[in-house]
């Protein structure tokens, strides 16, 4: 295995394949230079129609081995990998790994420095720990889903808050535990619940509510569509723009460029009683011109303005093009690694791999003899997909 260039170069991570935020976590770790080996189930079914194709971008950067975890020999292989790993990530319901003989009680006893990262919806403990769920359910009990949307009903914010909010919290926790393990020589279990992560992300809003600065009614607050100058508006061509003119100097620029600066009733920016009328007036003004025309007027000004783009349009925006925010691999345009580093530049090691594509290479790289690998292949405990 060649040395990688990212800041996590030299770090070895084992991933038990799953869905949801787990693959996004290990994609990020791989982008940052870690060597990640994904353990796929032999012949396991998947609900992902992109699995094994270049479009499965959250599987990029890793090598894959296929194990039949119903066989003791395959469990032995998995333990061998964990013995040589700095961290392992799994996303099964609580108790599954223990029943396989791969839980932290076994793995961490064998490898004292191992960081054992566990990703679930509800966490390892609590009344809901064994319940099924998805992102929408995890953010529902956090207060976040109630706060997002229009006055009449909550809106579903894709699966950013639960799944990918959980992924980011997991990455922070895993990296912190790795740092601690290198200082102390002791690994530990990192229990990441997507429901916890969603609550964590709402910290400031919970605080504002208790302080009396947040109303539990959608479209009544600063960041939920209540403010007319922190909002979205439809243009003449049915495209949309975003406005974030909160600070007084930015609000003044918004008033100037919309021609409303001479209207005295809009001088009191923070008077909430005038917000509905101002929103109605801004709706009328922005509907008079196209998105492109408003971009010509407001982009690169201090209005705090941006057009609302589709995902395909985002890849073509000049700012994203100049910063190379998107890359193309095997004909698939996808987000580039983030953040940027001045010395240890992250890179995408390889396109997504199909299950078992690297079984032989991984097992020999991680310490098994070629003879033992062939024995395992012959037994059916592991599979190499040609």
Content-based structural category: alpha/beta
Q: Strand share of the residues? A: 15-25%
Work out the number of β strands: 14
* Amino- and carboxy-terminal Cα gap: 19 Å
Helix % is 25-40%
Q: How large is the count of helical segments?
A: 16
User: In angstroms, what is the radius of gyration?
Assistant: 25 Å
Q: Mind summarizing the main beta sheet?
A: 7 strands, mixed
The SSE string, one letter per element, is EHEEHEHHEHHEEHEHHEEHHHEHHEEHHE
Order of strands across the main sheet: 8-5-4-1-2-3-14
Unreliable segments of 5+ consecutive residues: none
Q: Shape from CA axes?
A: elongated
Mean pLDDT: 95
Summarize the structure.
The chain has 16 helices and 14 strands. The protein is α/β, with parallel strands linked by helices and 386 residues long.
